Amino acid sequence: MCGIVGLYLKNQALEPQLGKLFEPMLLAMTDRGPDSAGFAIYGDEVQDGWVKLTLQSSAEEYDWKQLMGALEGRLGCSLDWFRNASAAVLKVQTEEAKVREALAELAADVRIMSAGQSIEILKGMGLPADIAERFSLANMKGSHIIGHTRMATESAVTMEGSHPFSTGADLCLVHNGSLSNHSRLRQLLKRQGITFETENDTEVAAGYLTWRLREGDSLKAALDHSLEDLDGFFTFAIGTRNGFAVIRDPIACKPAILAETDDYVAMASEYQALASLPGIDKARVWEPEPATMYIWERTAA
Amino acid sequence: MNKFDLATDSVRELNQALHDQAKELTEREWHVSNPGGKHNLVVGVNEALSIDIDGHAGYYCAGMNQKATVTVHGNVGVGVAENMMSGVVRVKGSASQAAGATAHGGLLVIEGDAGARCGISMKGVDIVVGGSIGHMSCFMAQAGRLVVCGDAGDALGDSLYETRIYVKGTVKSLGSDCIEKEMRAEHLDELKELLHRAGFNEDPASFKRYGSSRQLYNFKVDNASAY
Amino acid sequence: MSDKPTPVLRESATFDRLTIQEIQRAAETGIYDIRGGGTKRKLPHFDDLLLLGASMSRYPLEGYREKCGTDVVLGTRFAKKPIHLKIPVTIAGMSFGALSAQAKEALGRGASIAGTSTTTGDGGMTPEERGQSQTLVYQYLPSRYGMNPDDLRKADAIEIVLGQGAKPGGGGMLLGMKVTERVAGMRTLPIGVDQRSACRHPDWTGPDDLAIKIAEIREITDWEKPIYVKIGASRPYYDVKLAIKAGADVIVLDGMQGGTAATQEVFIEHVGIPILAAIPPAVQALQEMDMHRKVQLIVSGGIRTGADVAKAMAMGADAVAIGTAALIALGDNHPRLDEELKKIGSAAGYYDDWQNGQDPAGITTQNPELSRRLDPVEAGRRLANYLRVLVLEAQTMARACGKSHLHNLDPEDLVALTVEAAAMARVPLAGTNWVPGQGF
């Protein structure tokens, strides 16, 4: 039960302003989700052969420097990193699996929020304004971003239970609604080797997509399958390396609105989250159809 | 003319002023600027005021309207004119889902498209849509008329009671107990009058009529699959 | 004379006579059974709790001299005009349609004498009811039958109904024999249809959208009236939290013993949880959000005696609501109707075919001949008497526990007779300090 926002820039000249354009969109959804908030921003891409991870620690003053030193020694390869509030963004020239293995050994309490070449997921408890300020959202650059404000329904209000949820390399999911068959599905996915950190229904949807993609589905096929296998009410926004996708369940009770201009495509739960965008009064504005996938992606660079 | 700018004035101030105005009635013309998709604009108005909203409105715009004429120069969110009793609400742009939900009377005109569940449980309102409507429209609709100049989505008129539906374009599918019905002279007259009131220049003869086959009005074993 | 003992017929516990009869009925008709009332099976209930009267460690209060307050204020969180009731027992929502106009009027009369509120139902507000109810709560239901802004402004509070204890997740029902000209007119339905109401509201789904809906109703009524949110008990811990987040002033929590005018038997008996099990998680949710006593909690579903009232309040309710008990007080199922009830296949004390509209008491009917039998003044007086007794009984028990106000009753004043009740009510098993599930 939440608010969803997404902004995908078609005009690359706007990329330095992505965070600035997006922040008021996220804040406009405060009433829909006062418990926690988060976003996944895409940009500052690393070269092939490198991987970028977003790490979060529950400790306020975590000693990232010490961890990075140890990691560099353990992996024996080039490493670049910076801290952003309670998170750290790590870029390293090796395979993702090797970094995960090393981090599990060196810092089991540090959580990997995202991994890929472009994605950074930043989220936490509190009002959207607090989260935006904590991570200096307004100063962030990038090509596209999706965000979420959460009104927790059945699972706990925690950083881990906040959206977006990572679903694989450069992929993430945000959700508005409530799934009615997540418990049984979670058991099935666990048997497939998918791990869960929360009791959150959205994490099950994220795990489901991770599983389908791992099984070789295209994103479109995975989402088509989700319409068959997920029961309940949902509007999903999915971030990909090159863009984003939107899909609603066949009943489509949870709101969603899309807007497109020559400069951008924007998505939100309510129009008021779009009202601050430049040129919105001339945009094409419409609602996504039920059980229909909408996807915007630039051709891979 | 009374002017409200929602960039500085609050929705609460606007609605309170409208409710107070209804008692005194010194100013019939109202103008609202910078609505910015805000919710619950001009709800519960109870007097024959004329209100223009210059931009997009959020949920429940003109909810429970009585007597007032409200024009939205933009799009509206969920449940525009929900439970309207009388008056006219005109949306120059498009409407989100549940437009005119449970409305008892008056006229709702949507010049663009309307989303899912348009006219859900409507109870006597007349709704005229210039564009197309989404799925499950007129679900359990009880009375009144819905006119659609474009197309209708899935499950039109599911579990319909006595609402009459006129659609010019295609209907993706009909819901339970909804059937196409013969367009007789009285229906052409009724439709002509509705289109005229809504300001649409369409030929009534190009529309088809849909209504309830009244098979689900009482519990019957033959209908078990529909329950 | 044979030595053989007389053979004893053994009834199957699994296929008992009722079960066999239901299978036979289903095979005959091909459709589920619909009836009125609440669940009939035995459930853990307030009877499984006992109050700990004072003796040496606590001092009791004198019955006729020392005060035991009973008043309650509902809707103090946001409403400009909260509701002040003299007693913490309210009348639950029951529709005109399900009940006769005379019954609705009688409820209003009885409640007003006793200083409490009545509630409309799924069918709009009647002048009889508004006229006779000093304090009237107007229900806002998925169907919105008869909903209009004039009545909204006439109401003293507005109750947004998400569900009821008899059928959480299900919509209302009114069978054709009760959809008379007047009922149909108020609901804008064809006369005689088997009316099935929607289970979800038409223009919002979920707490994020409910927050906007509540704001709309507040705007329409200029933030004067308390907004209640009524929940059928199934996941009360989450639902109460979400109702608070959505902006409710008052939460009405209806347990599965709560009655209904007409619903599938299987729904009544198998969906939802008993009120005993629903109150502790609801109160926990209120406390975790620091909203206990700030957002008031009204509980209902099987309240019959002053002991039930006292125990519900001890568990953390601010007030209770009665439905079935109020109808019995008006005259439903009265022994003098036994013969007439037998003619329609029931008997006094068993009658639950409220869906059929043949109630000889003139309460759950729209038949003018039958409903004329109920004298609203006399029936109202009976209800007022009954309400008075409920409060006197609750006060008696509260005083015995040393409380100068009913709302000072506390879970610590309670023990349970059964392990089940102890676990559900989260109070110790009598004579022990063991609360199952919470260790020692």
UniProtKB/TrEMBL annotation, chain A:
Keyword Transferase included in the entry's annotation: yes
Q: Where is the Glutamine amidotransferase type-2 domain?
A: 2-299
Checking SUPFAM superfamilies in the record gives: N-terminal nucleophile aminohydrolases (Ntn hydrolases) (SSF56235)
Q: Which InterPro entries match?
A: GATase_2_dom (IPR017932), Ntn_hydrolases_N (IPR029055)
Q: Which residues form a coiled coil?
A: none
- Which molecular-function annotations from GO does this UniProt entry contain? transferase activity
Which controlled-vocabulary keywords does the entry list? Glutamine amidotransferase, Transferase
Q: Does the keyword Transferase apply?
A: yes
Gene3D superfamilies in UniProt: Glutamine Phosphoribosylpyrophosphate, subunit 1, domain 1
Q: State the PANTHER family in the record.
A: AMIDOPHOSPHORIBOSYLTRANSFERASE (PTHR11907)
Q: What is this protein called?
A: Amidophosphoribosyltransferase
Source organism of the structure: Proteobacteria bacterium 228
From TrEMBL, chain B:
Which domain of life does the protein's organism represent?
A: Bacteria
Q: What is the lineage of its organism?
A: Bacteria, Pseudomonadati, Pseudomonadota, Gammaproteobacteria, Oceanospirillales
Report the protein name in the record: Protein glxC
Q: Which organism is it from?
A: Pokkaliibacter plantistimulans
Q: Which InterPro entries match?
A: Glu_synth_asu_C_sf (IPR036485), Glu_synth_lsu_3 (IPR012061)
Automatic annotation (TrEMBL), chain C:
User: What domain of life is recorded for the organism?
Assistant: Bacteria
According to the entry, every stretch annotated as the Glutamate synthase domain falls at: 78-331, 360-403
Q: Which UniProt keywords apply?
A: Oxidoreductase
- A Pfam entry, by short name: Glu_synthase
Q: Which GO terms describe its molecular function?
A: glutamate synthase activity
Has the keyword Translocase been applied to this entry?
Answer: no
One annotated GO biological process: glutamate biosynthetic process
Q: Which family does it belong to?
A: Belongs to the glutamate synthase family.
Listed name of the protein: FMN-binding glutamate synthase family protein
Taxonomic lineage is:
Bacteria, Pseudomonadati, Pseudomonadota
